[in-house]
Amino acid sequence: MSAPPVWLEVALNGTWGSGRQPLAPVTTEALVAEAVACVDAGAAVVHLHAFDDAGRPREAYDLYAPVLEGIRAARDAVCYPTVPMGPVPSADAAAGRERYAVVDRLAAAGLAEWAVVDPGSLVVATAEELAAGGDGFLYANGAADVRAGLDVCARHRLVTSFAVYEPGFTRLGALLRRPDAPRPVHRFMFSDTFGFGFPPADWALEAHLRLLERCDPGAPWMVAGLGVELGELTDVAVHRGGHVRVGLEDAPLGCRRSNVELVRAAVARIEAVGRRVATPTEVRAATLGA
Question: What is the DSSP letter of 240?
């Protein structure tokens, strides 16, 4: 029996803006065009952040909806937005629900199929920023936030995308997991630019996988990161049965390759080890049937 296809996700932009990631799309037209090109190149899953007219990242239904509608009108793709990056964790269930209000509305409109639920908190800062005395940014997710996100996933049958910035995120995610929601995808976030998590190394992936097998045996997973080139770790992950995310949200800041180039390079690596990328239909069948 042939090996199952590899899910390839593209994260189009992140919060960097044109100053730190000049090739990342931010306008509605650019996001739609780039998503379409990436799907044509082999990506089945598209993740994006919305920006307002001043070029600032902002989580608003009226900003996301035209982008997601434009992508869906042009191509079949599994699409999903982000959530506000709270500097403090939500103190109660009501605050957590407010954080996921836009995702909830997009899902109700049929415009989102996955949802970001990050089970833990971290400081987002580059080594350079820290060395200069900077503090970076506290990305905080309390239990109320995680529960609110999982509640939206259960209500709308959204696939939970757990970003695992630190190993403990796997443990907390498993403890709070909702059995009435689709099984989460654990996205291991590597970096050799920022001060969190593991560098993109074989031993680091092995550590993640051992903990995942203990906490959520058989759960789907993928490799990704921030400010990182995964390189040969992509090959190792595919050999181990994992999936892959690329894109200008994850690439080193100031990356000179476009999202489409990053997708094409990932497809080439996947095919070079004897595998093929999954279609959106295959991703849906695998995630919603898990």
Answer: T
Output Rg (C-alpha) for the chain, integer angstroms. Answer: 17
- Residue 107 has phi, psi (to 5 degrees) of -65, -40
* 119 vs 142: CA distance, rounded Å: 8
174 three-state secondary structure: helix
Q: How many helices (H) and strands (E) does the chain have?
A: 12, 10
Q: What are the two backbone dihedrals, phi and then psi, of residue 180, each rounded to the nearest 5 degrees?
A: -95, 5
The span from the CA of 37 to the CA of 12, in Å, is 11
Give CA–CA dist 31/14, Å, rounded.
12
Angstrom CA distances, 107 to 5, 67, 127, 159, stand at 26, 14, 37, 11
Tens digit of pLDDT at every position of the chain (290 positions)? 578 999 999 999 999 988 899 999 999 999 999 999 999 999 999 999 999 999 999 999 999 999 999 999 999 999 999 998 877 777 777 877 888 999 999 999 999 999 999 999 999 999 999 999 999 889 999 999 999 999 999 999 999 999 999 999 999 999 999 999 999 999 999 999 999 999 999 999 999 999 999 999 999 999 999 999 999 999 999 999 999 999 999 999 999 999 999 999 999 999 999 999 999 999 999 999 74
Instruction: Indicate the burial class of 257 (C-beta count within 10 angstroms; 0-12, 13-18, 19 or more).
Output: middle
Q: Which two tokens stand for residue 169?
A: 């995120």
Residues 144 and 95 sit within 8 Å (Cβ to Cβ):
yes
Amino acid at position 58, single letter? R
Chain-centroid distance of CA 62 in Å reads 21
Decide: 182 and 290 in contact? Cβ < 8 Å.
yes
